[in-house]
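Researcher: Going back to the complex we discussed earlier. I've cleaned up the inputs and rechecked each line, so this should be the final set. Can you rerun the prediction on the complete assembly and write out the structure?
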Amino acid sequence: MTPTRIAIAAALASALTLPAVAQAQAQAQAQGRMPVEKCFGVSKAGQNDCQTDTSSCAGTSKKDNQPDAWIAVPKGTCQKIVGGVVKG
Amino acid sequence: MTLALREWQAAFVADLAGGGGEARLAIHRHHIQRSLAKALAMTFPTVHALVGADFFRQIAGIFVTRELPTQPVLAEYGAQFADFLAAEEAMHGLPYLADVARLDWALNVAFYSPRPSAADLTGLSPEVLLSKVLTLAPGAELIRSRYPLDRIWTASQPGAAEGEVDLAKGPTCLLVLPAGFVRLDEGEAAFVASIAEGHTLEAAAVAGFTAESNFGLAGCFGRLLGCEAFAALQQ
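Model: Rerun complete. Updated structure for the full complex:
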């Protein structure tokens, strides 16, 4: 059953007077807060260094351009997710 | 051989269109692919962790060929990535991946949203509160998933504890805010959704109790205020 207007008003008002500790706890419960300023753009993600971790310059571009050739299978924390089927 | 600029540009366009000089053009193509894939990996860290670097590079490479950036801010690249994964996911047996991408994207959007001061409701009378219409913080988003999205996210963080996540432990509703995301139960989700639709706090509270009879209104509202879920009030 839905509470009365008065009960709703009282509940809302009581939330305004939560002590600072409770508010800090609420913040601490939030996950995924980015700890530092993420700063990337052309200078970082797009470093014009040509060399990459697997090859130089155009080394793998042919491979990368074959959308249908799936050579890699998922190999990450998805192994921990039960019920998700990883096709090898 | 020295080419005039006009001739050089014409040759470059011809190359881009698939003419000669493939090897040299491939350098640029490769560079674009790798740079954008790296940007995607930073915007979608949880997806990256779930599938691993090799697989991510592959799916990112395909995405890049379909959706090039439309503006210069790389952090704003990838809006369609979750939909892309939703269309691709079936064949890889990771049905939750698209929802994880939505969470990554929402965290990214919330993080880069403007941060006006949070709503200050101090001193408002209970009667005024009932008829108050609040606005969610810029970038806030409610994400519903049939999977235990918060647990999947936690299990994919660097240094996460060992242990498995049971996909059957869904569904979940997460509220993504600049301060991070919080998991909401059914009543809380209905309360927030109603506020997002522009209803008064009283109407939102009723929606919360309708969705879940033992909805904890005071605790939920306090938690949302603590997380700065609401933008400053407009006069």
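Model: Worth noting: Chain A touches chain B through 63 residues (CB under 8 Å).
Researcher: Good, that matches what I expected from the previous run.
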